[in-house]
Write a structure and sequence with these properties.
The structure is a single chain. This protein has about 550 residues and is α+β, with helices and mostly antiparallel strands. It has 16 helices and 16 strands. The strands form 4 sheets. An 8-stranded antiparallel β-sheet has the order 8-9-10-11-7-14-16-15. The protein has a 3-stranded antiparallel β-sheet with strand order 1-3-2, with no helix packed on it. Strands 4-5-6 form a 3-stranded antiparallel β-sheet. A hairpin with a 3-residue loop joins strand 12 and strand 13. Helix 1 (about 5-25) packs antiparallel against helix 3 (about 115-135) and helix 11 (about 310-325) crosses helix 14 (about 410-430). The chain is globular, with a radius of gyration of 27 Å. Mean pLDDT is about 75; it is low at about 25-160. It is a peripheral membrane protein. One of its GO terms (biological process) is phosphocreatine biosynthetic process. Exists as an octamer composed of four MTCK homodimers.
Length: about 550
């Protein structure tokens, strides 16, 4: 056997030493710098943080893209020093390149670092080793070795950017071709099944978001639930904010179909929470029993409910409750954790339409909404129970303003004021909501993108509901009806939950105005039928301006 060449021996010696020092660093996790991302209040909307988890003191090793190892090397472009409580790591092309297929910190992220004696002592050795390794690999004799090392360490990936939202897509290796994995959707009636072609599936099936969320996980709920022949559901969910960018080839057409032609590639979504712009806003309380406005909000940097870990779900709860404790005046209240309630307390709140129940719908169960139930889930409400926040149901948060009677204007004013205050308090804690100018506020289900808003009333329509023109009237007014128990429930005593059909392409003020005008039209039809007079189907209203 030929003895190993000096170059080869030197390479292997250097690599071995580097590996041993790396393992020493990893095994002495108590001495390593503790790294946790904190959102900056100066952060621009649209930028994202990848997950570096858990926060300091969480008591477990970090999970980064499915690995338990955290990149904690020095940042040459950082401002400040590791000895300070935190320093900034700007988002440069150089920094991104070194983090491909690993933890990617996009946008200004404040890193809280504790000094590591062992790591500091190892730096001169590492620098010397790097220099030696560089000299060895630069020689012609080591070209073959360099090729082997390079081939073994290349990770495929690319950066997508749209609306200042960056998302890194990673390609996974499959044992079977995409054609063998394509789901059988021949009997399905949902938006996903209508738009997912074999070519789109082949293009996306090997990709994943930085958090590891895949196309198959997005569509599983739609594959498991073919849907009703006359009720077309969405059929897919997002696992994180990057989902909508990495899998845009399927999400964009689904969004366009679900939201009446809204094109997220070319259109911009308006946001308007100025309640003073609402005209009228009062209903005849002989017909309207209650009024409410709700929306959802997602905290940037944390996975959405279908994909979140237990630690992330608990972080959502902590961040939200800490912020809500800062509310004052008529918004002041307290938080009630589901795991601390008795069954009787939970049922009473559910019966009063204040609290959500454990998901039983196959659509939600297939999407992973009920995992670890009821861990880190609960309800926060003010003292009057007119302003409520659900935590970790279908979205990170559901914000609700409600009261008995027909004063929608007061309900909407409280909704706007409370929502603005909650967002301000969240930002003071160093976090922010997911938002971009194309899709508005980002939520789990594509059906709730944009405003995420549903303004609804419980209204008695005993005569109109029996008229065969009722469905067409609702369609032209861009309204939808549900039972008083919510989605998939029947009406009780001819009382319906009537709300806006659209979420995306119109502002909050515009959508509530649609409900105010539309419900008043329904009440007028009911009055006319009571008097034996005829009614007419109104002309269709436009959803948005193209």
């Amino acid at each position: 056997m030929q003895p190993a060449s000096p170059v080869y021996s030197q390479c292997m010696c250097t690599v071995t030493r580097a590996y041993l020092i790396l393992r020493v660093k990893q095994c002495t996790s108590g001495l390593l710098p503790a790294v946790t991302p904190r959102r900056s209040s100066e952060h621009l909307p649209g930028s994202l943080d990848s997950r570096v988890w858990p926060p300091v003191g969480a008591g477990r090793r970090a999970e980064v893209d499915g690995s338990d190892e955290v990149e904690s090397g020095p940042a040459p472009s950082a401002v400040g020093s590791p000895e300070s409580p935190g320093f900034w790591l700007p988002d440069s092309q150089e920094n991104r390149a070194t983090r491909t297929s690993s933890a990617v910190l996009r946008g200004p992220v404040c890193l809280q670092v504790s000094p590591c004696p062992l790591a500091c002592a190892a730096e001169p050795i590492a620098a010397s080793m790097a220099s030696t390794f560089s000299r060895v690999l630069s020689s012609r004799r080591s070209a073959g070795f360099l090729a082997i090392v390079g081939a073994g360490t290349v990770a495929t990936g690319y950066l997508l950017s749209r609306d200042k939202v960056s998302a890194e897509s990673e390609r996974r290796r499959r044992l079977y071709p995409a054609s063998a994995e394509y789901p059988d959707l021949r009997k399905h009636n949902n938006c996903m099944a209508s738009n997912l072609t074999p070519s789109i599936y082949a293009k996306l099936c090997d990709k994943s978001t930085p958090n590891g969320w895949t196309l198959d996980q997005c569509i599983q709920t739609g594959v498991d639930n073919p849907g009703h022949p006359f009720i077309k559901t969405v059929g897919m969910v997002a696992g994180d904010e990057e989902t909508y960018e990495v899998f845009a080839a399927i999400f964009d057409p689904v969004i366009q179909e679900r939201h009446n032609g809204y094109n997220p590639q070319t259109m911009k979504h308006p946001t308007d929470l100025d309640a003073s712009k609402l005209k009228s806003g009062y209903f005849d309380e002989r017909y309207v029993l209650s009024s409410r406005v709700r929306t959802g909000r997602s905290i940037r940097g944390l996975s959405l409910p279908p994909a979140c870990t237990r630690a992330e779900r608990r972080e959502v709860e902590k961040v939200t409750v800490d912020a809500l404790n800062g509310l004052t005046g008529d918004l002041a209240g307290r938080y009630y954790r589901l795991s601390d309630m008795t069954d009787a307390e939970q049922q009473r709140l559910i019966d009063d339409h204040f609290l959500f129940d454990k998901p039983v719908s196959p659509l939600l169960l297939s999407a992973g909404m009920a995992r670890d139930w009821p861990d880190a889930r609960g309800i926060w409400h003010n003292n009057e129970k007119t302003f409520l926040i659900w935590i970790n149901e279908e979205d990170h948060t559901r914000v609700i303003s409600m009261e008995k009677g027909g004063n929608m204007k007061r309900v909407f004013e409280r909704f706007c004021r409370g929502l603005k205050e909650v967002e301000r308090l969240i930002q003071e804690k160093g976090w922010e909501f997911m938002w971009n100018e194309r899709m508005g506020y980002i939520l789990t289900c594509p059906s709730n993108l944009g405003t995420g808003l549903r303004a609804g009333v419980h209204v008695k329509l005993p005569m109109l509901s029996k008229d065969p023109r009722f469905p067409k009237i609702l369609e032209n007014l861009r309204l939808q009806k549900r039972g008083t128990g919510g989605v998939d429930t029947a009406a009780v005593g001819s009382t319906f939950d009537i709300s806006n059909l659209d979420r995306l392409g119109k502002s909050e003020v515009e959508l509530v105005q649609v409900v105010v005008d539309g419900v008043n039209y329904l009440i007028d039809c009911e009055r006319r039928l009571e008097k034996g007079q005829d009614i007419r189907i109104p002309s269709p209203i436009s959803q948005f301006k193209h």
